[in-house]
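Input record, target 12 of the design panel.
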């Protein structure tokens, strides 16, 4: 059944195409109820009829857009700094997300499972912000949530500081929107650890002391733990930009 809520994930990407992009793409296209806007100047191999839509833009143009909408003195030294502007995407790309009920951000160093299992309509209807990590987060598309990043809370890194430094503040996870539900009880917030974060400095995938591996099949992602009686479904796996040898078979 088609979802009632329309959801778009916004992903600016500059640099070089990741080795595992086709894995991300296939997992995104297996979620046809969700739209992905990929802002880039790279020649990503995406079909025109895909739910992944390429938005052609250069890094210089996106920097200009940020300075127009966030302040002329906003600093965007390199593409990684764009992480700090993720909470502002609702305003930065307001024209593009008209008609969507939710907007959000995710990364391409993830492989997605069945998003609708975790984000059904009845779940979206009850919340304004879902999840809290830079690699996946959703916000209701309205004035309050789109401008939430501009709020100032005691002891919390705020946007004015963030946009004036070239230092990456991880504002998408540690800044204003991360603490907003604590200060505003009317924000209906949902957060669960529904993903697997691959250890960045380990060759093996581990969960506790047990080796782990993930299997994606027909749009569903299962996490297998050695010694466990049965696998469990997860929403996505976060690869943390690790280098991979990709053997594409029967794609």
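The sequence produced for target 12 reads:
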């Amino acid at each position: 059944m088609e979802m009632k809520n329309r959801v778009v994930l916004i992903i600016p990407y500059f640099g070089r195409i990741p080795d595992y992009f086709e894995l991300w793409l296939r997992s995104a296209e297996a979620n046809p109820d969700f739209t992905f806007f990929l802002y880039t100047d790279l020649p990503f191999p995406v079909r025109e009829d895909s739910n992944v839509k390429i938005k052609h833009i250069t890094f210089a143009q996106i920097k200009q857009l940020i300075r127009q909408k966030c302040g002329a003195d906003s600093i965007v030294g390199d593409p990684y700094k764009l992480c700090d502007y993720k909470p502002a995407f609702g305003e930065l790309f307001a024209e593009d997300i008209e008609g969507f009920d939710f907007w959000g951000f995710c990364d391409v160093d993830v492989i997605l499972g069945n998003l609708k299992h975790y984000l059904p309509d009845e779940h979206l209807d009850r919340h304004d912000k879902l999840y809290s990590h830079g690699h996946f987060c959703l916000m209701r598309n309205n004035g309050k949530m789109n401008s939430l990043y501009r709020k100032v809370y005691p002891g919390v890194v705020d946007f004015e500081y963030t946009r004036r430094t070239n230092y990456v503040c991880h504002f998408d996870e540690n800044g204003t929107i991360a603490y907003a539900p604590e200060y505003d009880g009317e924000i209906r917030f949902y957060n669960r650890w529904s993903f697997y974060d691959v250890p960045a400095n380990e060759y093996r995938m581990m969960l506790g002391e047990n080796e782990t591996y993930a299997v994606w099949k027909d749009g569903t992602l299962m996490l297998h733990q050695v010694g466990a009686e049965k696998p469990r479904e997860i929403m996505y796996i976060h690869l943390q930009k690790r280098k991979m040898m990709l053997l594409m078979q029967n794609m």
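The longest helix spans residues 59-70.
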